[in-house]
Every structure is written in structure tokens, then in C-alpha cells.
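Q: Predict the assembly, please.
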Amino acid sequence: MAAQETVEHKYVYDFAEGNKDLKDLLGGKGANLAEMTNLGLPVPPGFTITTEACKAYLTTGREPDGLAAQIEAHLESLEREMGRKLGDPQDPLLVSVRSGAKFSMPGMMETVLNVGLNDRSVVGLSAQAGGNDRFAWDSYRRLIQMFGKTVCEVPGEEFEHALDDAKRAKGTQNDLDLDADDLRGLVDAYKKIFAKHTGREFPQEPREQLDLAIRAVFESWNAERAVVYRRQERIPADLGTAVNVVAMVFGNLGADSGTGVAFTRDPGSGAQGIYGDYLANAQGEDVVAGIRNTVQLQELEQIDKKSYDELLDYMARLEEHYKDLCDIEFTIERGKLWMLQTRVGKRTAAAAFVIAGQLVDEGLIDLDEALHRVNGAQLAQLMFPRFRLDHEFQPVAKGIGASPGAASGKVVFTSARAVELAAEGESVILVRRETNPDDLNGMIAAKGILTSRGGKTSHAAVVARGMGKTCVSGADELDVNVPAKKFIVAGQTVNEGDVVSIDGTTGKVYLGEVPVMPSEVVQYFEGSLDPEHIDNPLVRAVHRIMTHADAKRRLLVRTNADTGADAARARRFGAEGIGLCRTEHMFLGDRRELVERLILASTDEEREAALAALLPLQREDFIDIFREMDGLPVTVRLIDPPLHEFLPPLEQLAVNVAVAQERGEDVAKEEALLAAVRRMHEENPMLGLRGVRLGLVIPGLFAMQVRAIAEAAVEVTRSGGSACPEIMVPLVGAVQELETVRAEAEKIIAEVVGDSGVEVLIGTMIEVPRAALTAGQIAEAAQFFSFGTNDLTQMGWGFSRDDVEGAFFWRYLELGIFGISPFESIDREGVGRLVRIAAEEGRAARPGLKLGVCGEHGGDPDSVHFFHEVGLDYVSCSPFRVPVARLEAGRAAITTTGSDSR
Ligand code: ADP
Ligand code: MG
Ligand code: MG
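A: Predicted assembly structure:
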């Protein structure tokens, strides 16, 4: 037998070996560090341990074979390059150990700085820094703090309290006032905390520190907050994180050092310019943690012109290279600039459109790429209303508009309380000094987030922007007291439960509930803003990209509308017809009485009289809708719900009867209704007497509706309009059902339409699995199919829609049985397969069969892409979703090699 040759798996890449397209393997941070290294930018040397190593560790619980040796080899070459050895007592090399997954998960995972410091190398570090003891001990205490918290799960507050104590003892608020001796004392205190919580001394061996830190980063992939974040952002759970080991550079060496973050354009509005924060004499996390107030990046020009100019040059090069907004982390060590991270930056929905438009103008990308870079979820966000402000409402504070939108709600101070109140249906605003990853659940539950500290790049800001949640950060006039559950602003006390309003665009904070007004984007869609003549970069960009989407898309977009008013609005939003006009509301209100007569009818005459009374009312409804949709198809669904939904509930009727009897009143009608309700009671009404079954059981019911539709179409057409009705039969499972309804309907239509020129199509919904599976037969009798994906999902999965979401979907999501509710986004493999089969077999039986979808999925971005792939002719969705569907239909139609839009 030939000796089996084992090719060693490569788990570690030097920065010089990677590039930006290796995100799956090296994570975003590692891939981009490699890219910058290869562009010749000053990146401290280092290497990346792959996501594969992490996945292997997470499945087996130990480091894969060969990893330790590969780390050793790369560490040695790093040591050679730096001329220093990890943790060497005389002249130590220090490294950072940084997480970095494929998709950025801000603040979710761990990073440990200054690895390699111990009781001896701290002295060497001080010597390296020209005898800067303060710096060395500051770095050491940071290591113990980060290592303790991340690697050994020591509660972070303990370190923070010790730091506060040290500052208090010194009579200062500012960490910069602590001198070397204070920090040495703090290191002792930290070590005690460490030992108390872990039962061991802080590890002095540098390589042990490194290995434990790497392992902690691997494990941070499965930290609860990371799991929650991934679920929220729909990031797959099995990607794993890479680990970057990077030679440390120091921003905490004195006033000529510092650290900062920069954006090549404003991630809030998309405006061109230089945005960022800088903090002198500080290390890494300080900028985002908001421990001291940062200065605007522009001020760096005064502080260190050479580094500033160099940074601007790199920013321009990165934009040119990535052809997109980049966000950057950098550190200046004694006047020398180091680039520590870049990535295509997260941005608000408005900025996404504005930047895509600008990049087209600058010739960096084409319109297809611009279309690819925005999405329907962002457009939906831009259609949210904004505050309507008049003199009554004066802001009480102004922070930073960190994530746009307008939110009002009751103030809460803890994540737990936010979750609690939101579960009771309250709108809440989560108010914190600053948020941290433990606040994630509260942030998800809240309508908006308000913090008194931190800038555009703080945790609150970044996470809120990612979620599309309104956020005002750094409102420093707020004196927030979390334990006392209150904040004080402008001399007023705001307690938990009081209502505030926050504007995430302007950063303004108001007391009470401010009324809202529609967004400019909605005004544009409604036709009241002319995109060519207004000075609004967002509206211009939306107009341009929507125009391109419309030119590219193959799918038509219709709307679900039951009234003339809805139809008119949807048409302004670009609807190209009605895909679902429900008729059930036409049986409500003051028409209930007629429905009751219909249900209670004991003779043919009584029933016919009730139907005859309903006919003209229905006809008027349809006339109204056909007029608004003049020239465009209108799909009318014959009555679908079980009839007892139109009667009062059983309990109420029983009480009415009892009360009336007590009073000696005439209860004949109530008793008849009660008997009818009892008779019509069904254990599973969604699977009972509804849809086409009603039409087959109740003589004249569908006939009346068909007649009303045909007469309305004739009337509209005779008066100069053009009505294009499509009659849709719901809940068909067998072609015979449809044939029966169709035969009767065709007779009526022929009689009504005569020579008016009106054409009425007859088709069916495909919403029962059996219909999908016998679509070839059904197509023989149907002129069109419309997929009712709500029922198809309900019956395909056997999920009672009204019950399951609240009952157990949380568990299914937790277990990853599905990543998103199949009622929200179509289940491609199962329910989607039914759609695919029906589309193919239907078209095979009747070439050119018109296919559409009218479930909620018609307005869901992912589902729209699926319907495009399957070859449907149109999707239909609620009026407000029409622009979203147009945009996504355009995006589905273009293919581009561009970046992942996440
Ligand atoms: P995150 O993903 O949370 O931003 P990072 O890995 O980027 O975490 O690191 C946290 C902070 O530490 C950042 O501000 C980063 O710039 C800084 N940092 C990371 N590595 C180094 C290093 N080698 N030298 C100096 N600062 C570093
Ligand atoms: Mg981090
Ligand atoms: Mg970072």
C-alpha cells in the first residue's frame, strides 16, 4: 500500500499572503489588512489564523493538528521582522489578538491588546519607550483588564470600579492624571481581581497569553450576544471568525500619539468630506468606548499635520481602490501613522443611495453597480415618516444624529426593561450613558436609542445603524442616572415611563410625543417633489436608481388594494395593476345585515333577495377601483373567508340572547343567528368551508360577484375608460372545482359583456399544495395563476399562521430550523419548490400562462429575487411596498460581480 501523503492544511496566512477577496477564509479584517499591506500602506506586520481553524476548534473543542506549529513559525518570522521577541523582558514584542469574521459584527467579538506584557517585560517596555513608566504600566493594566474580561470572564465592572477608585483617590475624573505609580497600584489591584475570579494568578508566560487569547477569540463566535446579533442581521451561524495577530503600535505614548477612526464620506448622510474622531494619548478601544471626549478628525491637522496629510492620502487611495465608502482605524505612534483596519463602511439607508449616486457621477461605478449597492430594506426605511416640528416643540438637547428616523416612546434605562415593556406592546426609547454589547436585546426591542456619550462611531451608533434603528448618541446635556432610573436635562427630570422623542437625523431630543410627517422619498413617490428641480441629494439619488431599476426589471409590480383610494396611492407608487383585490371588506360595515340575511335565508327567494341587494353595492366598489386602475389589470378575488367570520362571535350572541330573554324582548333573530353560528362552527376554519368551496355550496354567491365585476367593467369601459378585470377563484385544489365555477361565470360574463369589448379573464390562486402539484391540469381551466404564498406556506408546512409565530417560532429560529419566518420570506426549498413546480407544469400545459404572486412575500426583498428566478410575470404587494418591490425586481435582473451588500 502506498504511503498516504498528508498535505498539511494551511491555517495561518501572513498579511502579505492574503487579499480582500479572501473574506471567507481570513475574515473581513484579516482580508483587508492583507489588502492594505499589499497596497503598500503602513500596516503593522502580523498574520491571520483562518476561519477554518476556528470552525475546527468549535466542532472538536480543541485546536486542529498543525495549528500550533504554524502559529509558532509565523510568530518567529514576525519576531525576526520586528527584531523583538514576544514578551522579551528587555525589549518585548507585544501583539494584539483580534477577532474578525466575514461580516463585520461591531463590538460582538473579542480583541485583546498588549499581549506579551508581564511583570518583567513591563520594565522592558518602559525602557523601549525611553523610560516612559506611565505608558508601560498603563499598557499592562489594559492587558490584565482585557484579558481578564475576554479570556477569563472576569466581570468588567470590577476593573472599572478599581479604575474609578484610583481616579477618586487621585481626585480626578481623567485617566490621564494617573501617573506611573498610580497605574502600578492599579495593576496590583487588577491582578487581585483576576486571581479572585479565576482562582489563579495572571499568566506571566507570553505564549500562554497568546494561545489563551486566540482560543477566547474562537469562542467569542458563540457568545450569546454574537448569536443574537447574527440572528438579527441574518448572518449564517457557521462561518466562524478568523483571528488576527498584529504587532502592537502605541497611541498612548504621549501627546504626540493617539488613535482614531475615519470615514471617507459621512456614513449618516453620504455627504462628501472627512469624518471621524481622534483621541490623543489613547489606545484602541478608547475612541469608541467614549472614555474621554474625542475631537473631530479635522483637528488632527493642527495637532499633527504630517500624519493628517498622510492619512488623507491613504483615505483617497482606499476609496479609489475599494470604489466605496471606507471606514478606517488608525493609530499615531510618536508622529508615525499606522493603519489598523479598513473596510467598506456601514452606512445609513440615505447614505447608501446618496453615495451610490455620487460614485456613478465620479465614474467609479456604473448604474448597475449603484443599483446593486442599495436594497429594498433601505428604501423601506427611507419611507418612514419624520417629525413634524412647530414652535410647540423645542429640543431639550442635541446629540449626534447617529442613525436616522423619528422615534417616540417611554424612557427605559435597562435592556431588560426595554424587552419587558416592548413585549407589552409599548414603544420604548432605551436611554443609556453609552451602550455596550450586553444591551443588544434592549436595542432590538426599543424604537430608538439615546445615549449621553459617544460619537458617530460609538457602539450605540454603529449597532443602531446596522439595525436601521433610530439613534441619537452623545447627547451630553443629559445627566443619565441608570440606577435611579432617571435623567436630568435642562433642569427637568425625566423618569422611567415618561415619553421622549428623538430625531436620529438631526440628533435632537424632545420631551413628549412629537407628531410625524411623511418622508421626502414618499413625497417624491407621490409625485409632489420633482426630482430634477429640488436640491435634495437623496431624492435625486433615489430617482436615478429607481429609474434604472425600472428600466432593468423584468418582473412587473402590482399592488394589493381593496379600495379606490388604495389603488390610487399604489398607482402613484408605480403599481402596474392590482394583483389582489379582496372582496371581503365589501361585506362588512352596514352591509353586514345583508350578509346575515344571506346566511339565515331559509328559502331560495330570501337568499336571492339578499344577493340582489348586495349586487349594486359590489358593482359600485368595482367601478371605483377600475376607474383608478384605468387601463391596468385588476385581479379580483371572489369571496374567500368562512362566512361565520361575518357573524358576531358565539359568546357574544349567547349573552345577547340571554340578556334579551331576561328582559322579555323578541329574540327570534338572535336565536337564529346563534343557531347558525353553532351550525357553522368549524374546528379548523382555515381548512373548512371557505374559498371556492363557498362558491360551490352557496348558490348564487359567486354568480353575484362575477356579475358585479362584469357590469362594473362594462360601465367603466362604456364611459370611456378601460377596465381589465381578472376574476380569481381562491383555494382551488382540483381542476374540477375551477371548471364548475368557470362554466357558470362564463355564462354570466357573456351575457353582461355583450359587444362592449370588455375582456374578463378567469384564473385561480395556487395556494393549496394539491393545486401546485396538479398545476398542469388546473392550467387547462385557468387563464392565469396567482400564488397565494401565505396559505401555501400555512398548508405546505402545516403551520397555523395565527398561532405558530407566537407559540414556537422563537425556538425554531434559535435552533436554526429556519433563519427567518417562512411567512416573512419564502422558504425556497419547500414552499418555493411548490411554486416552481406549478409554474413549470402550468406553463407546459398552457404556454404563456400569466403567473403572479399575491402573498405578503410579494414585497419581501429576498422573495422578490426568488420570484424573478422562477420566471413569474409579476409580484403584488401592499401599496407602500411597491417601490421596494420595483427596486428589488431591478436588482434581481442585474448580475454583477460587485461586493456583498451586507
Ligand atoms: P473591533 O473589531 O472591535 O474594532 P479591533 O480588533 O479592531 O476590534 O481592535 C480594537 C481596537 O484596538 C481598535 O481600535 C484597534 O484599532 C486597536 N488595535 C488593534 N490592534 C492593534 C495594534 N496592533 N496596535 C494598536 N492598536 C490596535
Ligand atoms: Mg472588539
Ligand atoms: Mg476595529
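The mean pLDDT is 92. The pocket of adenosine-5'-diphosphate (ligand 1) is lined by residues 44, 96, 98, 107, 111, 113, 246-249, 284-285, 329, 331, 340-341 (CB under 6 Å).
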